[in-house]
Each structure stands twice: as structure tokens, then as C-alpha cells.
Design a protein that fits this description.
The structure is a single chain. The chain is mainly β. The protein is about 5% helix and about 40% strand. It contains one helix and twelve strands, in the order E-E-E-E-E-E-E-E-E-E-E-H-E. The strands form four sheets. Strands 3, 5, 6, 7, 9 and 12 form a six-stranded mixed beta sheet that branches. Strands 1-2 form a two-stranded antiparallel ribbon. It has a two-stranded antiparallel ribbon with strand order 4-8. Strand 5 and strand 6 form a beta hairpin.
Length: about 150
């Protein structure tokens, strides 16, 4: 599915930009998990959002607080499923737990950055070691007319 951006929209015409690049690019492994929307509001879950798991319940949540102490501060994978999740709702989603993930497509929430330190290691390092082999890679896929 391509991301579509409208620009230069007038009464008679408009220009669209489509982004066909992928988030998950090579040897990716996925598993289904129960996702809990604990944000306090309805959520538009997007592919590429970083997830953690609450240790006591085993439910995946957005990794939006590196200072949390319930286990959700550690990265376990990236959301592959998209859609609206109501506040407090639980649903089964697909999560990428291994393979190559394009770094500039990763979506971080709550002001989190890949350079945040969690238990003496940066989030970038934790993604490489705490997941089942996720590698953050650079990609310029489909950026030229001859691709």
C-alpha cells in the first residue's frame, strides 16, 4: 500500500506524490500478539510503530515511555498491522520481530528517539539485541525513475 500525499491542489487539478517504499525489506519474521491501546485516547496504529510488551500481562503496547518499569520500555518489534484502535481496546495484530527494517520508516511515539538510553544502552542498540534479530537499515528503494 502506498502513502499518498496531495500537494498543489487547486479547483482544476492537483499533484499527488506516492511513496511505494517498504518498511520491512528483507527476511522478516512476524508473529501475532495482543495489542492493548493504553494511551488514553483512540489510536491510529501505523505500520512501523515500535512496540514493547507489558511483562505482567504479555500484551504489546506502544513504546512511548523509556522510563517505564513494567517491561514496556524494552523494544520487542514493530507493528505491521494498521487501523484504528479504540481507547482500552485489545486486538490481535501482526508484529515484525526479525529481519531488516528501514530506519527512516520507524515511527517513534511520545518523544522517544533512537538515542534514548534505557538501562545503560541506547534504544537503537536495544532494538538490535532485545528483538529476535531486527536490523535497522538505510534504504533508498524506488527513489529513481529506473527502479
Amino acid at each position: 500500500m502506498a502513502d499518498l500525499t496531495l500537494r498543489d491542489l487547486t479547483k482544476n487539478q492537483g499533484t499527488m506524490d506516492r511513496d511505494f517504499s517498504k518498511i520491512f525489506v528483507f527476511q522478516n519474521n512476524f508473529r501475532n500478539v495482543t495489542f492493548l491501546n493504553d494511551t488514553g485516547a483512540d489510536l491510529e496504529l501505523k505500520g512501523g510503530e515500535l512496540l514493547g510488551v507489558i511483562a505482567s500481562s504479555g500484551k504489546a503496547v506502544l513504546l512511548d515511555d523509556p522510563g517505564a518499569t513494567d517491561g514496556s520500555q524494552f523494544p520487542v518489534g514493530f507493528a505491521n498491522s494498521c487501523g484504528t484502535v479504540l481507547d482500552g481496546e485489545e486486538l490481535t495484530i501482526s508484529m515484525c520481530i526479525g529481519g531488516d527494517v528501514v530506519e527512516n520508516k520507524v515511527i517513534l511515539t511520545g518523544g522517544v528517539s533512537l538515542d534514548d538510553v534505557i538501562s545503560l544502552r541506547t534504544l537503537r542498540d536495544r532494538i538490535a539485541s532485545d528483538t529476535m534479530g531486527v536490523r535497522l537499515v538505510e534504504s533508498t528503494e524506488l527513489t529513481n525513475f529506473d527502479n
